[in-house]
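Hi all, a correction to my earlier message: I attached the wrong file for Succinate-semialdehyde dehydrogenase/glutarate-semialdehyde dehydrogenase. Here's the right sequence:
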Amino acid sequence: MHIATVNPANGETVKTYHPMGEDEIERRLQLAQATFRTYRTTAFDERARLLHRAADLLLEDQQDIARVITTEMGKPVKQARAEAAKCAKAMHWYADHAAELLADEEPDASDVKDSGASRVLVRYRPIGPVLAVMPWNFPLWQVIRFAAPALMAGNVGLLKHASNVPQTALYLEDLFHRAGFTEGCFQTLLIGSAAVDDILRDERVKAATLTGSEPAGRAVASTAGEMVKKTVLELGGSDPFVVMPSADLDRAAEVAVTARTQNTGQSCIAAKRFIVHTDVHDAFAERFVAGMRALKVGDPMDEETDVGPLSSERGRTDLEELVDDAVRSGATVLCGGERPDGPGWFYPPTVLTGITREMRIHREEAFGPVATLYRAADLDEALLIANDTDFGLSSNVWTRDEAETDRFVRDLEAGSVYVNGMTASHPAFPFGGVKRSGYGRELSGHGIREFCNITTVWHGA
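and the right structure:
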């Protein structure tokens, strides 16, 4: 398996790594199991102290790790710095709130009495080593939003990161070690995808979390189901961005550009399908296309760059194929749509209209700065288009009509509904999807409890 840093801005291989062999994987599984036996008994105060320290170190490293991230997967460096800061914020948040989120709960006194008990407690206990299979697009954030709650719950982590971000993966292991966590609390496994199945089948691994593609999610879920192990899956998304006549069009169009092109459009929660009421469709389209054209595409190390390269040559080819298929089937290109000359895996911000259900881009996730624009006659048609997808991660609705808001919140098939704003993840709010976008939740109290043994403790009279 090829594990390497390949700079997407020029296609040059920076550094390669040999995958870990069976002996090293076994050593690390033994270490994880042994470490869990003692780490699980540490007090919340001690876990919080260590996690706060890791967050502080990350902020100290912010400039350097941002450049590593940009080199490995092409994210504009200013966005990479913001990702590091967001990770530190989440670590501080869980360090401050985990004890409260996992505090013992006492059921209603009448129910306790009815059960014949003198006292009943619900206690959240750690379950053991958790395998995290993580993607390259937010190489720090995707890991930290698993690692921070898992470590605060008393679990230990095993990271199988994407093979194109090995330096970031190794940095994360080193970060937790420097913060004072015992070596086995968080380990990076430099392995290929083929090694995941055997590790997940190992009895020492108690659960798994995966963020990535639908095929990868199916594989992990299948094995975990066979082994009767808990999983949390965050898979793809094709989020709708609905604009109704009462919306602030200037603001909606401005946010729409960011929502589609953040992280060069390589985000599961990026808005991808822009569904606009016919009364304001043309006015919105004009603003949106102008905003997409104005973005600066170029060197991701340049502070002025808005859109960098796609993370891989394969990723750009996949995106081009979706666009070309749509154009062949009758879609109109309002801007972009052609690969630029020169080195690197760049693709311009692109807007397509005239989308039909037969086009691949209507059904598949476009992982790059390509937006599809739909016209809806009314609220009902907007909902039909929005829900006409196998995905259900998040959604965006722009309206100042309360009745419309209530209807969208009720009927949109998504894990989140953002009203007059752009989808974003925050440590205090649950994050996850429905349909083929996965199951389970990350972040908030819901996320930290996903990998806990929820134990009923019953005391007789």
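Sorry for the mix-up. The two ends are 60 Å apart (CA to CA).
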